[in-house]
């Protein structure tokens, strides 16, 4: 693979991340908080561990975001009677309104991007991103195993 292609890919990913960061900043939002809020809004039954695993956000960061949302009265945590370690995260009425005001503009933004790209290209883009993420994860795991073997 040519270095120019790798450089171009890195620039493209950095640009996308930077543009989202700018969008978050105009709304005075922390990116991990919005990612956690988005995850809860889109997939309401996720646990903190599942949010961390699915969205690759450090567990402590997810916990901090949940605690900040709880402190503001946006979520409440209900303990599972069968497993005391697991807590269901529920939006309060105030939290549901906040999530809608926060997440829906982001969804609208992404819908506009999808429309601009066209359905086929957008689905190809998602598929390629997922494949890239899977390959990256594989390489990271493999490099950890290799480095542990060398010790």
Would you write up a description of this structure?
This protein has six helices and two strands. It is mainly alpha-helical and 151 residues long. Helix 2 packs across helix 4, helix 3 (48-55) crosses helix 4 (59-71) and helix 5 (93-117) packs across helix 6 (119-150). The mean pLDDT is 89.
Number of helices: 6
Uncertain spans: none
Overall shape: globular
- The counted number of beta strands is 2
Biggest sheet, strands in spatial order?
Answer: 1-2
Order of helices and strands: HHHHEEHH
- Computed over alpha carbons, the radius of gyration is 18 Å
Q: Structural class of the secondary structure composition?
A: mainly alpha
Percentage beta strand? 5-15%
Helix coverage percent: over 70%
Terminal CA distance: 30 Å
Report mean pLDDT, rounded to a whole number.
89
Please give the largest β-sheet.
2 strands, antiparallel
């Amino acid at each position: 693979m040519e270095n120019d292609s790798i450089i171009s890919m890195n620039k493209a990913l950095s640009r996308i991340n930077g543009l989202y960061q700018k969008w978050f900043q105009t709304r005075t939002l922390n990116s991990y908080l919005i990612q956690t809020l988005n995850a809860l809004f889109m997939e309401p039954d996720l646990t903190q561990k599942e949010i961390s695993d699915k969205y690759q956000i450090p567990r402590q960061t997810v916990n901090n975001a949940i605690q900040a949302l709880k402190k503001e009265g946006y979520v409440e945590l209900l303990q599972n009677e069968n497993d005391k370690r697991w807590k269901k995260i529920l939006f309060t009425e105030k939290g549901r309104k906040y999530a809608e005001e926060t997440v829906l503009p982001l969804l609208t933004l992404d819908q506009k991007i999808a429309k601009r790209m066209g359905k086929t290209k957008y689905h190809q883009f998602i598929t390629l991103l997922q494949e890239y993420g899977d390959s990256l994860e594989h390489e990271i795991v493999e490099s950890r195993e290799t480095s542990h073997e060398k010790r």
